[in-house]
Amino acid sequence: MSLSPKYLSRVFKDVTGTGFMEYKLKIKIDKAKELLKGTGSTISEISDKLGFMNPESFMRIFKKVTGATPTKFRKRKKPVR
After folding, report:
1. How far apart, in whole angstroms, are the C-alpha atoms of residue 4 and residue 33?
2. Which pLDDT does position 2 carry in this prediction?
3. Mean pLDDT of the region 41-47
4. What is the DSSP string of 45-65?
5. Which of 26-35, 46-55, 72-81 has the lowest mean pLDDT?
6. Which of 40, 39, 38, 47 is nearest to 69 (CA)?
7. Which residues contact 16 (CB under 8 A, 6 or more apart)?
8. In the predicted model, what is the mean pLDDT of the chain?
9. Residue 41 pLDDT
10. What is the largest CA-CA distance in the chain?
11. Which of 17, 26, 45, 47 is the most exposed place for a label (fewest CB within 10 A)?
């Protein structure tokens, strides 16, 4: 395509209203929420599946974005039976 990453990033932000890295993180956190609610996967498995460097960085970022640790989020969002 011969387009610079800087140019593509600027166009992406103009179109979506958010930076690419911020958008990518939102997608990852949304997927993490789905996995926490809908599977019995461990935090480490979810972290690995979503491409985080390690479970600790995943937990730190998840808490920063959602206001809750993955474990607390999972407990809070369990379906009532």
Report:
1. 33
2. 80
3. 97
4. HHHHHTT-S-HHHHHHHHHHH
5. 72-81
6. 47
7. 23
8. 92
9. 96
10. 55
11. 17
Give, in order, the Cα–Cα distances in Å from 56 to each of 8, 17, 66: 31, 29, 15
Q: What is the pLDDT of residues 3-39, one digit of tens each?
A: 898 999 999 999 999 999 999 999 999 999 999 999 9
CA 50 to chain centre: 7
Q: Are 51 and 11 in contact (CB under 8 A)?
A: no
- The one-letter code for the residue type at 75 is K
HSE on the CB side for 60, CA within 13 Å?
6
Structure tokens at 61: 């970022």
Instruction: Let me know how long the chain is.
Output: 81
17 backbone φψ class: left, alpha, beta (φ>0; ψ -120 to 50): left
Per-residue pLDDT for 72 more than 60?
A: yes
